[in-house]
Structure formats: C-alpha cells, structure tokens
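Technical annex, item 7. During the second reporting period the consortium partners agreed on a shared format for inverse folding records so that results from different sites could be compared directly. Each record opens with the tokenized structure and is followed by the designed sequence. A conforming record, contributed by the partner at site C, is shown below for reference.
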C-alpha cells in the first residue's frame, strides 16, 4: 500500500526574467537523480569515443593490454565531480531546465540556458534550492545572541 502524498507541494518561486515571469520549482531528490543520469549519459558518450581511440592506439603499442587501459576510461562519476557539475554553467542550466519544466512544459533545455544570466543566477539558484524558513530563523537567532554577548 502506498502513502498518500497529495498534500505534498513543492515550493515554487516566480522570477521575472526580461519581460516574462517564470515559475521555478524546488528541486527534489528525483530531479537530482535525473541530473546524475544526464551526467552519466554524457560521460558514456565521451567514453565511447575514448574507447575507440584507445583500442586503436593500443594495437600500435607492444606489450599493452587494451582491457587494462579500458578500465581507466570506464569510471563512475564521483561525488566531487557531481558537486563540480552542479555548480558549472551547464549544470545550473540543466537544473534550471528540470525546475522550469514543471510549470513550463514547453521549455527546452536550450531555452533554459538562454534566460539565465550572471545577473539572475543567484536568484535562480535560491529558487532551485530554497532554504527552509526555520533554518534561516535559527541561524538569525544564533547570530543575534552571539552579537549581543559581545
């Protein structure tokens, strides 16, 4: 039996970009899993090209086992790589696309990249990963207490 999640609503943030207002949806774990799958697909395409070149080159070099070289090419995406990609220009563009498609089903990944500028990237990032209100209040309370003690 599955749990009723009908009361769950992801946070949405409206941001005016140019002359149009866009609704960004908070990203969930499923969205981040889709982002990781996107990265893995990109990596696999790149690895396929590398494999072809590697096998061709390995045939020309004596005493080299192509299978050992292929192990170096076929690697998983590490957490560090995932974090770097999250913060890259392409990564933020893809995450914005994932967020926008909930309210703007017609938007393409390329269009999402076009509407993001250095001037609005902070607002968009905050919409993708909104802070919890209680967390913000707790942080503010701690700051006030520490400053009043000084």
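Designed sequence (site C submission):
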């Amino acid at each position: 039996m599955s749990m009723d999640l009908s009361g769950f609503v992801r946070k949405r943030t409206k941001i005016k970009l140019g002359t149009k207002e866009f609704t960004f949806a908070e990203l969930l774990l499923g969205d981040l899993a889709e982002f990781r799958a996107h990265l893995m697909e990109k990596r696999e395409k790149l690895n396929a090209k590398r494999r072809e070149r590697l096998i061709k080159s390995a045939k020309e070099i004596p005493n080299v086992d192509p299978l050992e070289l292929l192990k170096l090419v076929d690697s998983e995406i590490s957490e560090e790589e995932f974090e770097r990609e999250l913060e890259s220009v392409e990564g933020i563009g893809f995450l914005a696309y994932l967020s926008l498609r909930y309210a703007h089903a017609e938007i393409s990944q390329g269009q999402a990249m076009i509407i993001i500028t250095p001037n609005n990237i902070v607002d968009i990032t905050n919409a993708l990963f909104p802070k919890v209100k209680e967390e913000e209040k707790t942080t503010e309370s701690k700051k006030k207490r520490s400053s009043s003690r000084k």
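Residues 29-60 form the longest helix (32 residues). The CA atoms of residues 4 and 10 lie 15 Å apart. All partners now use this format for quarterly exchanges.
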